[in-house]
């Protein structure tokens, strides 16, 4: 088991629950419906990848190098994708123009895709 990967999964899961509750109970009356829906998308993808990291952290068949490479793409993807969405969707209440980071969202999505692709490649390479 890789404790760093597993621990990051726990942290992202815990933070996802907290942000989801904050969105549902603290932001629903102050954000427009579209902004709240975007915020929820960020939380959902963060939670998916928190679970992904828990599984990856417990997985013992892949080498540590492969796991660390996948971990890099997934953690980078979550930080860029979900966190840029959190900032962008709360612009109306913070009064801060986060438009400059809007390009980070698709870049984060690309990193998430690359993490999944790399995992698939490593699994099929290792087990074939």
From TrEMBL:
<feature type="transmembrane region" description="Helical">
    <location>
        <begin position="70"/>
        <end position="88"/>
    </location>
</feature>
<keyword id="KW-0812">Transmembrane</keyword>
<keyword id="KW-1133">Transmembrane helix</keyword>
<keyword id="KW-0472">Membrane</keyword>
<feature type="transmembrane region" description="Helical">
    <location>
        <begin position="42"/>
        <end position="58"/>
    </location>
</feature>
<dbReference type="Pfam" id="PF04241">
    <property type="entry name" value="DUF423"/>
</dbReference>
<feature type="transmembrane region" description="Helical">
    <location>
        <begin position="100"/>
        <end position="124"/>
    </location>
</feature>
<comment type="similarity">
    <text>Belongs to the UPF0382 family.</text>
</comment>
<dbReference type="GO" id="GO:0005886">
    <property type="term" value="C:plasma membrane"/>
</dbReference>
<protein>
    <submittedName>
        <fullName>DUF423 domain-containing protein</fullName>
    </submittedName>
</protein>
<dbReference type="InterPro" id="IPR006696">
    <property type="entry name" value="DUF423"/>
</dbReference>
């Amino acid at each position: 088991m890789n404790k760093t990967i597993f621990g990051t999964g726990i942290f992202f899961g815990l933070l996802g629950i907290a942000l989801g509750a904050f969105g549902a109970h603290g932001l629903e009356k102050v954000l427009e419906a579209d902004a709240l829906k975007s915020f929820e998308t960020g939380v959902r993808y963060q939670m998916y990848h928190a679970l992904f990291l828990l599984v990856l952290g417990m997985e013992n068949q892949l080498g540590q190098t492969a796991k660390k490479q996948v971990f890099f793409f997934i953690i980078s993807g979550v930080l860029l994708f979900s966190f840029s969405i959190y900032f962008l969707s709360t612009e109306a209440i913070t009064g801060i123009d986060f438009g400059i980071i809007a390009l980070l969202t698709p870049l984060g999505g690309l990193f998430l895709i690359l993490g999944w692709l790399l995992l698939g490649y490593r699994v099929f390479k290792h087990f074939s």
